[in-house]
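User: Hi! I have a protein structure encoded as tokens and I'd like to know what sequence might fold into it. I'm fairly new to this, so please keep things simple.
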């Protein structure tokens, strides 16, 4: 589980929180969205400026769906960008992404952070 468990009141708590935060005129709100589609829809309706939607584990084929549906102004990505230094080029070329190795996420060193290959370094990954 990510973060804290707000319990049954969680969705209404976020509705209230987002409504109040919106009054401050902040530039953007970044939400980690774990699948309550009614809630993200309500957050979208309550938030006036840019909304960044982070869906942990979002598969490649879902890239852009929150933009096209209007839920997000920006989609956030973690693992795919970490493991693919040429993330944009791979999307444009429609070639596979290198999967991220979770074993190196919290290792404390540079392995798994700066050593994933770009396509030109390892064309066999394409
Ligand atoms: C190396 C790494 C470390 C992360 N550390 C945390 C963390 O400490 N706390 C947290 O809530 N999420 C953490 N995340 C999760 C990111 O917020 C997650 O990547 C984000 O939800 C986007 O999902 P995606 O990586 O599937 O695109 C981490 C992700 C990565 C790749």
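Assistant: Happy to help. Inverse folding works backwards from shape to sequence: for each of the 126 positions I chose a residue that suits the local structure. Here it is:
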């Amino acid at each position: 589980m990510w973060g804290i468990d707000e319990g049954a009141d969680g969705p209404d708590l976020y509705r209230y929180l987002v409504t109040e935060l919106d009054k401050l005129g902040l530039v953007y709100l970044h939400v980690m969205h774990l699948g309550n589609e009614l809630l993200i829809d309500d957050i979208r309706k309550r938030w006036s400026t840019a909304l960044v939607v982070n869906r942990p584990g979002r598969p490649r084929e879902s890239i852009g769906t929150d933009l096209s549906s209007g839920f997000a102004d920006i989609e956030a990505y973690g693992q795919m960008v970490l493991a693919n230094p040429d993330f944009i080029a791979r999307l444009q070329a429609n070639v596979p992404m290198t999967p991220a190795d979770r074993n190196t996420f919290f290792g404390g060193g540079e392995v798994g952070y700066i050593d994933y290959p770009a396509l030109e370094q390892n064309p066999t990954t394409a």
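A useful reference point when you look it over: Strands lie at 28-32, 50-54, 74-76. Feel free to ask if any position seems puzzling.
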